[in-house]
Specification:
Helix content: 40-55%
Order of helices and strands: EHEHHEHEEHEHEHHHH
Mean pLDDT: 89
Radius of gyration: 20 Å
Number of strands: 7
Shape: elongated
Low-confidence stretches: 166-170
Number of domains: 2
Oligomer: single chain
């Protein structure tokens, strides 16, 4: 079985035992790349104890200060959620999404992001994702332990990598990385300010969030992101040549 480059990213994990158990779940399912964003306690003896044979995964775990740093170099990004989100996010069932994650990870690194035990991921953190994952569970008690959620996701990814799984086309341009997309969104916001394009809705505060989600759903590749950056630069140049003041 091949080993596509899939990062498991835990954001603000509060219990070191969950970190160790997540490492064990990854080892069970042949995943190696664990990234911890602002863990409350790590390294920690309980994490080591709960890893139970996955010491290599735990020892290789990277600790970073921001989600952006954890996602650096990644193309496709999926994020887990247990709550209903607004209609601007694309949400898929885990079994449906797993083959897509595996396919994208063969082109460039992919990531699956998990939130803190009590609060999950914020809307701002979810904005980096192309897709939100829902794990089916009982309506009466849908809340999953963090390590349990990692185990379920890891299992579905392992199953999607099985030899009998559908063949994947590895050709094509990789998806634009998280860093590239952040640069695109910053450029977009700058141009909107320069042309005085405002959010005309009642609240008037969600324009860039909607643009971000629209483009995340489009799953831009590297070339497409560059095309949009080029268009934005052309708009700026045309305004300057026309004598419009640069803001």
């Amino acid at each position: 079985m091949d080993s596509p480059d899939i990062r498991i990213v835990l954001v603000a994990a509060s219990h070191p035992g969950n970190i160790g158990a997540a490492a064990r779940a990854m080892k069970n399912m042949a995943l190696e790349s664990l990234v911890l964003v602002r863990p409350k306690q790590f390294p920690h003896p309980e994490a080591t104890a709960r890893a139970a044979g996955a010491d290599d995964v735990l020892a290789a775990a990277r600790v970073v200060d921001s989600l952006a740093a954890a996602l650096e170099g990644c193309g496709f990004i999926a994020a887990t959620t247990a709550r209903e989100r607004d209609q601007y996010f694309r949400v898929a069932g885990l079994r449906e999404a797993a083959p897509r994650i595996v396919a994208e990870a063969r082109r460039s690194p992919a990531a699956v992001v998990f939130g803190a035990e009590r609060t999950g991921l914020t809307n701002e953190e979810l904005e980096a994702a192309h897709l939100l994952l829902r794990i089916p569970a009982s309506v009466a008690y849908p809340s999953l332990n963090l390590a349990m959620a990692v185990q379920i996701v890891a299992y579905e990814l392992f199953s999607a990598r099985a030899p009998q799984a559908a063949a994947v086309d590895r050709a094509g341009v990789p998806l634009a990385g998280a860093g590239e997309l952040e640069q695109l969104y910053a450029h977009f916001a700058q141009v909107l300010e320069e042309i005085d394009f405002r959010d005309r809705t009642e609240s008037g505060t969600h324009l860039m969030s909607r643009i971000r989600r629209l483009l995340q759903r489009a799953e831009l590749d590297h070339n497409e992101a560059n095309i949009l950056r080029g268009i934005l630069t052309a708009v700026q140049n045309r305004r300057r040549h026309a004598g419009a003041p640069h803001r």
